Amino acid sequence: MSNLLRKPKCRTLSPGVTLFQDINSSNAPVEYVGLKQLKMEKGSVYQEELEKEEVCIVALTGKITVTDYDQIFENIGRRENIFDRTPTDSVYISNDRRFKITAISNAKVILCYAPSKKQLPTKLIKASENSIESRGKYANKRYVQNILTDTDSTANSLLVVEVYTEGGNWSSYPPHKHDRDNLPEESFLEEIYYHEMNPKQGFVFQRVYTDDRSIDETMTVENEEAVLVPKGYHPVAVPDGYTSYYLNVMAGPIKIWKFYNEPAHEWILNRK
Predict the structure, then answer these.
(1) Is the CB of residue 93 less than 8 Å from the CB of residue 99?
(2) Distance CA 173, CA 259 (A)
(3) φ, ψ at 268 (rounded to 5°)
(4) Are 23 and 37 spatial neighbours (Cβ–Cβ below 8 Å)?
(5) What is the DSSP letter of 233?
(6) Is 266 helix (H, G, I), strand (E, B) or coil?
(7) SS (H, E, C) 101-124
(8) Chain centroid to CA 215: how far?
(9) Distance of CA 195 to the CA centre of its chain
(10) Taking the model in full, what pTM does it have?
């Protein structure tokens, strides 16, 4: 099996709290990004103490209450189904703090991590603050909901975005990468894709490859699986009849998203 494809591995953390994904520098070829996916039953509690990491807590579905023990954000979360395409609420918490999540209903939560040494204020990122955009044309169309961007001062390193792609379309396409510290042309950002499908028995294809092909993997990705992009190009193809959702977590030494299109395929952008 690919080292870049991560299938869910269920582990009970506490009563009513199940960990499905746990990606970090100790178990994956990444240094700057991490991700956890939790499923929480109504009334259950998850607690964590951060060290030199910041976290963005995304209320994927259901409603939760989040506290850093100084502030409390009650009953946040705006959708029961990811594919409603309703933006959702998130909470940013900086390094050297602790937090608690309480499930107000059955909920699914994504925790996005990046290294951090400069403590910043805890912030509720309201659904209404998510910027929304449509990208691409022809068979390269997708719908984007930005939670944390590179121009947002909320976080030190984290970039978090949700992307919807309809069947028959490509996403993260034409193939692009961001694996060189070569500004202003390109920045270095590692990335994790967390995928879901509608209907859930669907799948997508994602290729991760470098110019020298030291990495060249094409993966069949199913519901609730994750793909690591430590470097290289990383396009996604969605079969007809299915809708793809993915949540991207990006981070690197500098919080700038400047990508580089593979020259062999950049002509696609200039079609009439």
Answers:
(1) yes
(2) 11
(3) -60, -30
(4) no
(5) B
(6) helix
(7) EEECCCEEEEEEEEECCCCCCCEE
(8) 21
(9) 9
(10) 0.96
DSSP label of 268: G
Phi and psi at 209, nearest 5°, equal -155, 150
Instruction: Enter the tokens of residue 139.
Output: 């068979």
State how beta strands 190-198 and 243-251 pair.
Answer: antiparallel
Q: The tokens 């490509």 sit on which residue?
A: 170
Residue 271: its pLDDT value, please? Answer: 81
For the chain, domains (ranges, CATH) are 5-270 (2.60.120.10)
Burial class (CB in 10 A: 0-12, 13-18, 19+), 270: exposed
CB 186 within 8 A of CB 259: yes
State the Cα–Cα distance between residues 241 and 236, nearest whole angstrom: 15
Rounded CA separation 237/170 (Å): 5
pLDDT for the residue 2? 74
Longest CA pairwise span in the chain (Å): 57
Give the pLDDT confidence score for residue 1 in this predicted structure: 53
C-alpha to C-alpha distance for 29 and 112, rounded to whole angstroms: 16
| pLDDT, average across residues 26-45 | 97
Cα distances (Å, whole numbers) of residue 105 to 13, 16, 45, 93, 138: 18, 11, 11, 22, 40
Please give the single-letter amino acid code of residue 155: A
One-letter identity of residue 97: R
Half-sphere exposure of 201 (CA within 13 A, CB side): 1
Task: Judge contact between 156 and 116, C-beta under 8 A.
Answer: yes
Express each pLDDT in 70-127 by its tens digit. Answer: 999 999 999 999 999 999 999 999 999 999 999 999 999 999 999 999 999 999 999 9
For residue 148, name the pLDDT band (cuts at 50, 70, 90). very high
67/100 Cα distance (integer angstroms): 5
